[in-house]
Amino acid sequence: QVQLVESGGGLVQPGGSLSLSCTASKIMFSFYAMAWYRQAPGKQRELVASISRGGHTNYADSVKGRFTISRDNAEKMLYLQMNNLKPEDTAVYYCNDAGGTMTPWGQGTQVTVSS
Known about the structure:
six-stranded mixed β-sheet, four-stranded antiparallel β-sheet, about 0% helix, globular
């Protein structure tokens, strides 16, 4: 059973930065395209950014130019660097494969952007 553990969230002022990390164990991490998702209160979970096995990245329009997804296959780690954060980025952030098919989902990490 896959284990996904997200970390790095917190409270930050608008315009600030945070760096999220995800450890993925019990899977052949390098075989998967991976992604970050987020879910804000009262909203559906949405795809934020994805990265292919080879490192090709895609971003939601709302975060393009502000967020950077990266991966370390050797360490089975997924990262999300978030800059110029906005209040609308407030959500619980999760990692999963690019199709969102891994179960169970991790507990997520809370990101709150507020002054």
